[in-house]
């Protein structure tokens, strides 16, 4: 009997990737086969993102691209964009199935048919009540079973003025602790070396009496080399959580702390739960307590009402922090948010697009400088690198690369390779010799 084949394309955050893994795992458990997309799959799944207007545009483009490439395949569109804008997807000719945030975990929905041309099943946000399966054994092919994403939490109760996540994913809820630990154990048994804990607001994790610290303490008992925390809100980066990371040999010295703005006026308008001084204090506490800690940040420019003084407050704050990297993006007006209502009613005024672009360029310049400063300090030092990827470099030379414990991209100099395929999925000590023009560290094995 010929197995049916499924192929998935994922856009957006690590949480989407973790969920795609769980969905594909369900198909495998039901006799399907995962294909790379080289052949014609029976089913194409496109997991969309809607965090910004650009993300939504990329989602629509990807849907059209897959329909054109695989005209004979059944096409299912899922994810946040599908949850928020199903009518927009329905207008794209060639889509067969549209599933919301709740329905995308139900395999039978992908093969269901209805009276309409498009089978659409999207529940309202208030009914999105359960979290997705916590693990998958099929994801990781790209990285040679080095890194897997483990979902521990979903949804958000924060209600930031610009954000659609509560609309797309519902309120905060956590995967039960025993389910998380079971999933982590299965990933370790499958050979993954690093587990990345993902969610919308993972520090809001609650399972009985267990919070984020207890979750980390439990998952440390799993036989896996590395545990990495994804994005975490600054207001919940407690000293206890910092100390837990600092004292662990398994939890990676890496935090991603969204800043968004260094202006207290803008932070208040965004309905963020911290001040610029509070963010700075949490950042520096983590940097001081955790050796070699890499701390990155999201920063938004062009928030309606942002003045030059507001922008300068953001720029100056980031200038003084030892950030490892910055993700810079322009504010994107999302329908259904309180920010959109404020702008439409005239309460807040949009920042001219030219001004926003100029501020973005200035912050991107600072981002490159900060990343270069943080990365450069490791030249001449030894780093433990988990190798993930092999590719052909310039002149046909093989390059193998991976990430250090503090999330620095490291590649081994071509002349130092013997069996590049054998390196994938292994952790080796590398002496850093130089930094390339694209801010990647390059080195040789320590013998």
Describe this structure as you would to a colleague.
α8 links the parallel β10 (194-198) and β11. The chain is built from 15 helices and 19 strands. It folds into 3 domains: 5-123, Rossmann fold (3-Layer(aba) Sandwich); 141-372, tm_1862 like domain (pyruvate-formate lyase- activating enzyme, Alpha-Beta Horseshoe); 382-445. The protein has helices spanning 14-29, 53-69, 80-84, 86-90, 107-110, 165-169, 177-189, 212-219, 239-246, 264-270, 276-289, 308-320, 338-344, 353-376, 420-423; strands at residues 5-10, 33-34, 43-48, 74-79, 97-99, 119-121, 147-151, 153-154, 173-174, 194-198, 226-229, 254-256, 294-301, 325-330, 382-392, 398-404, 409-412, 427-435, 441-445. The chain is an alpha/beta fold. The chain is 34% helix and 22% strand. A 6-stranded parallel beta sheet has the order 2-1-3-4-5-6, with helices on both faces. A 5-stranded mixed beta barrel has the order 15-16-17-19-18. Mean pLDDT is 90; it is low at 131-143.
């Amino acid at each position: 009997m010929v197995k049916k084949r499924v192929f998935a394309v994922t856009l957006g955050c690590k949480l989407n990737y973790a969920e795609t893994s769980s969905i594909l795992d369900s198909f495998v458990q039901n006799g399907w086969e995962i294909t790379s997309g080289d052949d014609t799959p029976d089913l194409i799944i496109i997991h969309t993102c809607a965090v910004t207007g650009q993300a939504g545009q990329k989602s629509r483009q990807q849907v059209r691209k897959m329909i054109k490439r695989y005209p004979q395949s059944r096409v299912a569109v899922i994810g946040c964009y599908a949850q928020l804008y199903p009518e927009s997807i329905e207008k794209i000719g060639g889509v067969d199935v549209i599933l919301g945030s709740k329905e995308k975990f139900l395999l039978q929905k992908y093969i269901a048919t209805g009276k309409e041309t498009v089978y659409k099943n999207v529940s309202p946000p208030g009914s999105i009540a359960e979290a997705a399966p916590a693990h998958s054994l099929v994801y990781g092919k790209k990285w040679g079973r080095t890194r897997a994403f483990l979902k521990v939490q979903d949804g958000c109760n924060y209600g930031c003025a610009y954000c659609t996540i509560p609309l797309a994913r519902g309120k905060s809820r956590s995967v039960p602790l025993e389910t998380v630990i079971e999933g982590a154990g299965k990933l370790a048994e499958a050979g993954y070396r690093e587990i990345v804990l993902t969610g919308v607001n993972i520090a809001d994790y609650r399972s009985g009496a267990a919070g984020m610290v207890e979750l980390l303490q439990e998952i440390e008992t799993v036989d896996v080399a590395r545990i990495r925390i994804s994005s975490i809100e600054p207001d919940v980066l407690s000293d206890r959580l910092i100390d837990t990371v600092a004292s662990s040999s398994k939890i990676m010295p890496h935090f991603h702390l969204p800043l968004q703005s260094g202006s207290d006026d803008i932070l208040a308008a965004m309905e963020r739960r911290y001040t610029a001084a509070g963010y700075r204090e949490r950042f520096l506490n983590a940097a001081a307590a955790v050796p070699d800690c890499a701390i990155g940040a999201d920063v938004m420019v062009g928030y309606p009402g942002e003045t030059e003084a507001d922008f300068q407050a953001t720029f100056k704050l980031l200038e003084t922090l030892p950030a490892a990297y910055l993700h810079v993006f322009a504010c994107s007006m999302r329908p259904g948010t309180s920010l959109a209502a404020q702008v439409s009613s005239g309460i807040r005024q949009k920042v001219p697009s030219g001004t926003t672009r100029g501020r973005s360029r200035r912050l991107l310049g600072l981002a490159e400088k900060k990343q270069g400063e943080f990365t450069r300090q490791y030249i001449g030092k030894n780093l433990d690198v988990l190798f993930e990827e092999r590719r052909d470099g310039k002149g046909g030379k093989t390059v193998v690369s991976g990430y250090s414990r503090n999330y620095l991209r490291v590649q081994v100099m071509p002349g130092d390779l013997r069996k590049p395929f054998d390196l994938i999925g292994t952790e080796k000590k590398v002496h850093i010799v130089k930094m390339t023009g694209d801010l990647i560290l390059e080195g040789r094995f320590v013998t």
